[in-house]
Structure formats: structure tokens, C-alpha cells
Design a protein that fits this description.
mainly alpha
Length: 154
Amino acid sequence: MNGEIILVILIVVGLIGRSPIITTAACLLLVMKLVHLERYLPSMERRGLEFGLLFLTIGVLVPFAQEKVDLRDITNTLTTWPGIVALAGGAIATYMNGKGLAMLKIDPQMIVGLVLGSILGIVFLRGIPVGPLMAAGITAFLLKVTQWIADKLS
């Protein structure tokens, strides 16, 4: 029963925070629990992130498939300073996402803070939720920085 209550709270918080992804995910999980499909939850936990990343990557690559971006566009972008900075930004972001994923595998209960922090950012900072991996990557970075500072001070 505790899991259902938490999911309902997440649904309400997602609605208040105007986060349809959190609301939808919590609704789907609640329905799965209520219709006794819990046996699929371990598979979803194991493969859900992979499927989510797959669909996210497909969404990003659609302009290539629709031929909205061609080789000339790529060349023009990668020969300008903004394009080179974008390339570096993409590489750093994916590196941080990898660190965030590793942190979530080691300490999965961190997702609670990440979700609540994301909701606070949406409500009070008018932010846009980009997902738990980037939030986890930033958290992993901040944890390393605070650990480094604590080691220097002691």
C-alpha cells in the first residue's frame, strides 16, 4: 500500500508542477500495481531506461531521417565557433549523463531527491524537466566537488 500512496503523491506533485512525464509515469506504474502486473516491474526497471534512451535518441535523429539536415549543414555547423562549442557541450553532457547513470545504479534512492528537485525547479524557477539522467549527472558532479572541498578543509 505504501507504494501506491507514493505514486499518488507523485501524480499530484506532477500535476501541480506541470510535469506530464512524471504524472504519466506514476499513473502507468499505479495502474500496473492496481491490476497486479507487478511481475513486469523488474523488467521495466532493468530495461526501461534503455528503451527511454532509445526513443529519445530516435527523436533527436528524426531530422536526419527526414533529410532536414544534410552533410553540408553538418560541415557548416562544425566549422563555426558555436558549432564547435555545441559539439563540446554535447560531449560533456553525455559524459555527465553517464556519471549520473552510474550514480543511480549505485544509489537508486537518489531518484527521490532528483524528482523532487526537478519539481521544485519547474515550480519555482520556471525550469524545464529534461530528465533524471542530466539531474543525476549534475548531482554526481556536485557530490564530487563537495567531497573535494571537504577533503581540502580537513
